[in-house]
DNA sequence: ATTTACAAGTGTTTATTGTACACTTGTAAA
DNA sequence: TTTACAAGTGTACAATAAACACTTGTAAAT
């Protein structure tokens, strides 16, 4: 910025969080029920205003904690929405952040306390303001990034099976993947290590558990699915 | 956003424009000389505050016009910088936009009026605040996008030669490209149409002029270099 | 003990795309 | 007529992506 402003600026700055989870082989979104006007009763992203002395990134994390109890979640900025009339309650510019979390660790019980709810991506309720656009851009970004960075593991437990991983990818990308091609690529990633233990809950044969080894990944830094 | 704010928010919202040009086979950046404190005398991006009833995108265009005279420039949002202490003059959050323009249409004469100046990307002066970070992220985004979208043509005149185009790409990516491989890819793009006319200024033989046909491109929508 | 049901697991072939590499051509100027 | 020089052209090899079907291991049922 550079020029001295003419008259007092009256714009509020907010953040909105797009929280992805994975359940029943579908990508889900955490929304909260809006308990006040305007748009009372509709659903919205987890959002709030930025504090005067708060880094924008910190604001996103604080707002997420305040409204959902979720802590220490790694979020990334997506983009900023700044249409003058986007929020019917006044002039608000909002920067979106997104994160992927393990839904099973944020289950119905904890969710209920905050009037929050998980929705499958293709069954979203009506959202306030331009939150559907926000979701759209976050999903597009997720689909782009999930192919080149090992970020999808955030949606799975520390131990997961390859069928699980593949279904996760199919859910995110909403396309089916060839099992053998998928597994070939996975087997080239040395940082995906197979454990001795098997998951016997989904089949008679059982599927080997794998883990994502962060340290090993840092040595290669390449990922492609 | 969702929660009612506790105390009055005092954050100013700004935009900063990263304007790319191409000259002498190098990527350049348009900067303006800062004529006031703080950081007086240093160079900065073209930036200013967002108006109360102004769309964020419009603010970027208006600021660009006010400070450089450039009009009808297509800009895209890059990202938003929001560290609490990023601007030493107070709390300012700034969203960056970038554009590519034809440097020859914005020459020394017009530039001078605005105390602006073109700098090759690898010879940038010291910039104020976090503007170097802003430039970095815009350059990374440019390098990513220039391979998959026909955006680099904005940096060239309507008629250009293939040697020119290749040098442009080499300048942007800062790597050398194989001439034959480059030209093979170009020749697969039917929307890059060869004219009868040749540019005789750079060689005895002369190089054919080409143009980018927007309408034809829209039918294919695929680009890869 | 044997059979059944079923998801987990495994290789090969073909097509597509990327990469490396060197000579010929057309023209203006000498 | 020769020279200088950038523009222009094709082929072979390597790497990556995509298509495709059968075998294996185990628990449960008989």
Please explain how this structure is put together.
2 copies of one chain form a homodimer. The first copy, chain A, has 6 helices and 10 strands; from the N terminus they run ββββαββαβαβααββα. Chain A is α+β, with helices and mostly antiparallel strands and 225 residues long. In chain A, the strands form 2 sheets. In chain A, strands 1, 2, 3, 4, 5, 6 and 7 form a 7-stranded mixed sheet that branches. The first copy, chain A, has a 3-stranded antiparallel sheet with strand order 8-10-9. In chain A, a hairpin with a 7-residue loop joins strand 9 (192-199) and strand 10 (207-212). The longest helix of chain A has 15 residues, at 131-145. The first copy, chain A, is elongated, with a radius of gyration of 20 Å. At the A-B interface, strand 1, strand 4, helix 1, strand 5 and strand 6 of A face strand 1, strand 4, helix 1, strand 5 and strand 6 of B. Chain A binds a DNA duplex (30 and 30 nucleotides) through residues 161-163, 178-181, 183-184, 200, 202-208.
Write a concise keyword list for the protein shown above.
homodimer, alpha+beta, seven-stranded mixed beta sheet, disordered N terminus, DNA-binding, WH-like_DNA-bd_sf (chains A, B), NUDIX_hydrolase_dom (chains A, B), hydrolase activity (chains A, B), NUDIX hydrolase (chains A, B), NUDIX_hydrolase-like_dom_sf (chains A, B)
